[in-house]
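Class, discuss our next protein.
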Amino acid sequence: MVVTIASAPSAALLETRDLSVGYPRGPVLLSKLYFTLRAGEVVSILGRNGVGKSTLLRTLTGHLPARGGHVHLGRDDLRHLKPAEIAKRIAVVPQFHSAVFAFTVADLVLMGRTARIGTFRQPGKADERKAMAMLERVGLAHIADRPVPQSSGGQRQMALIARALLQEPTVLALDEPTSHLDMANQVQVLDLLADLSSSGLAILMTSHFPEHALGLGGRALMLGGPNGLHLGDAADVVTEEALEAAYGVSVELVRSPRGRVACIPVHASDDSRA
């Protein structure tokens, strides 16, 4: 199935053409994918476990070769770019981070400058100032000297985002950025992403929370269901019918008095009590 989204006036920062994804010796998980990502846009990739969300993200960021078709960064084919060149344009926030060494939070964030200064150069005073400014922005300046293993899950996630932003990318790609966070930290991360998007950064993220795609707005790419995938405005893609088709469970979308939407699975026991 070919899915195309209408083009926006500005030039695409990232574009797929007839893209197929999957691991080299595994099955093709997605095929015939066309979409664009422009400055200030948000695209949320949704779907159940194992459907290919992280595989697609790894392909779009150059960590996994495409099984077919093309990914373009601006006018450049991703296949022809070196990792160092990609890192100047796309910054990736991974799903997990294990602190093997007791780096401080400031040290972790400062590592993001490697994309700009090179692997074998030491960060200078200007780089350190940028790192501290980024820690201020994400609310972590007060724990700059704390060892990363002693930070909370929410603090570590914000530090990883700060590290990615220090690469000065045009696209920020996040793999399930809120999956292991409590509600307060989820709100903090989502508010930061909304602020970054409004300032012109393109956001591409996978998520297990369809309501987060609705909260951020922009577009959603729903993987799974009878048609394989569905791409469009988040409000049009994240519907009760589409969620049931993609996840195999009935879902109610409940809107709060403030306009927020919650996705609530419907259990068989709920029907028996009706």
Observations:
- The CA atoms of residues 113 and 127 lie 7 Å apart.
- The radius of gyration is 19 Å.
